[in-house]
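To close the chapter, one final illustration. This time we ask the reader to focus less on the individual chains and more on the assembly as a whole: which components sit near each other, and how the overall shape emerges from the parts.
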Amino acid sequence: MSELSSLANANAALPMTILGIYIHGFFLILAVGLPYVVLIYEALGIIRKDNEYLEAAKRTSVVWAISFGFGAVTGTLVEFGLVQIWSGTILAIGSFFFIPLYLELFAFLIEVTFLAAYLYTWNKIKNPWMHWLLGLGILLGSNASAWLILTVNSWMQTPWGTGTLVQKILPWTPELGPSKVNNTALVTIYNVLPKTGSIVLADPKVIQALGYLIYDPLIVLFNPNALATVIHTILATIIIAAFETASIYSYFYLRGPRTDLKNFYFKAAKIAYGVGGIGSILMPFSGDFMARIVYQFQYVKFLIMEGFNGGKDPLIGLLTEFNPSYNFPGFKDLMSTANKSIDPNAVIQTLTEAQQMQPLMTVFYYSMVISGIILFLFGIGFFGLYNKKINALVRMITRMPTNKFIIYSSFIATILSIIAASAGWAVREIGRHPWTIYGLVQYQQVITPNPITSEFSMLIIAIELLILISGLVALYFIPTKSLNEIEIVRGG
Amino acid sequence: METFTPATWMSFMLLGIAVLVHVTLVNLVLGFSVLVPFIEYLSYRRKDKGLEDLARRLFRYLVISDLVAGVWGTWITVVLGGLWPTLTYIAATVLFIPITIAIIGILISIPAIAIYWYTWNKVSPKIHMMIGVLMALGALMVPAGFRMIFSFINYPVGLNEALKGNLYSVFNNPIYPVILLKSWFGGLTMSALMAAGIYALKFYRNIETENSIKASLIMLKMGLLLLLIQTLMGITYFYTLNSYSPYIYASIIGDTKIAQYNFMPLFLTHILLVVLMWFAALILFKQLRDNKSSQIFSFILILATFFALPVGEAMNDASRAPYMVINGTSGLPANIFTNSMFPISWSIAYLAVIVAVVVMAIFAVTLYIIYFGRTINSKEH
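The assembled structure is written out below.
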């Protein structure tokens, strides 16, 4: 397969891959973020001996089973996509990704074991804290799972443990940790894959001839990009899950004529909103940490997401270098480093494509930032429930008291948090284009040699959408049914 | 004589354990995905509300089995991709069409299960049964795809043609139709007889007596018919191996002149379990018709049915050792397919396998408490 047809094949596979990952992410957000909300409900219920909080925890936890089930299914889809469509990634799965992926299996098992135990043992364990601890097991399992998968993704952004290897190809890249890889083997792969495509891996002698690709596979776990990514992403899942929960209870608060249940719905919405609000207040700190990592290790991505072309920018200079008159290198300066690279074409290609992507990336990036700022303000507004000055401020701006503001703004907060997360992930993934593993492997080099036809692509997309719709239907009907039961139980 | 390296041993063990657990559970998924809509169809045809109730009850087993089977499917994918990189690449490339069929099967099956559940009594019976047919079709497609991998490594047909672009050439494999039919009927038999055993036990323990005896008898009738077909398929498969995969055949019958290892004990265990299934199923059938049941025969039926399949699978898969792909009376050693991209010592290999086994054991115990402890000893309404 020629390099050109590999590129066409890879581009044909991109839409179904992107859609599949986003659908997977949609369900995982609830699996990772929702345990925080449920455990806070349950802890409040136990501490204050308040059955309404316990009821909120029980009703909300039914969503776990759905999000876990659909997360597992779409996860299988993503895995198969990786192995079957992007089959050349097998080189990375068998080396750099192996440790996090293997550990993730245990995290997944822990999550499913505790999930089944938690859902089954409601009101069946004498000590309520023991039941709460089972929920904590789910939280640890799902969050460990997220940590390990994000570690894999982070390695694709910043191949930690490759020392100065990437720098030799893209000279602006700093040293990526101590060198724990076989440079000769990786350079061979770098030179051979573009010519042969991934089909060369069908010969067992090829992988054996390469020898070890990595001497210390644990190094992947110590990637600074992974640390920033995990904090940033898990915080985002908490915010989305919390605001979604708040909006569902707000919907029931507004919908029903049952005044005796309004207190329950408001209490549940208030706590979930508080979790989302506190998360939104913390988000700028984690976002700053993430942006500093991008600035340090993925300078080109930093330029395109900021819509910046180098030179002087007092605000960016102050935030990154603590020097408002700092002179940042721009695309032209970076282009001039091509002669220092062992592959000048890679430098030219990376920078040219980055510049083409810049307008789109800037839109995504600022959608995320603006959504984040509004959510931050919503988070501050939440404290109007406890502070008269903030309450007065909320009243002045929105012409409603804080409790009413919480109910109505929960719907906007849900939408904004989803926009922020989707745009943020788009920035992350498009920002390393055209590289699958930054500076080492491009996406068209790992595509299957089998042709990806448009019919095949459409079929997979149709099925992915069917899964999404089924999941959404389940996510609507099961919690709704569960909440309607409360009205029946309480004699409605 | 081929020997195992630490990487090969670890890869063999981890893959073997995950495949055994996964295949056992997906057989229940397959079986119930077909049996549930079929029983629902019978209920409408005979206007028998009790049968619809049974379909609903069996559907619970399907959902739980599918949830857990999915976890082990992930294990297999990671172990294959991580520890068998070349084999996985070849399979994903050469067997692109069959694997796509399997994936589409998974993708149809899961939403169909969800839609089937939520639309019960909310749409017309015809539409609901059509959704059930879709659910069954999805479940049947999964082994239709994945069993090609097993056929291919038993008898690699169509490798060169597929690498040149003729991806359909792999379907000329003579082992494939036999192994596929055996898988389909295996799943159906296992599900029917497991359910029969569980309901016979419930009847014995006086739990929902009327429903339990009816459910057990229906499942036994179906199960015995399916077991007959499955026994015939097993014999056919045995002779197919003799013709096309003589190394595996030699391993199974203990011919150590050809095979390096003797798996005759596993073969005999498998036969013993099948005999026990026949024996227990027939006795229970007679007892239930006389309005009686037996705890011991219910347990024998449940356990023999549950273990017959993994023992058969273990026999099939392990009998390739030390080869991974069989070619007549020899094969391609597993060593050439396993991971050589990072150092794996014996201590790492042992640690990885021991940790995996311990965690799986904890998982299995929890599952038993939740799954069987709940379904056997409690009412289902």
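Chain A is about 75% helix and 0% strand. The beta strands of chain A are 311-312, 327-328, 435-437, 441-442. With these observations in hand, you are ready for the problems at the end of the chapter.
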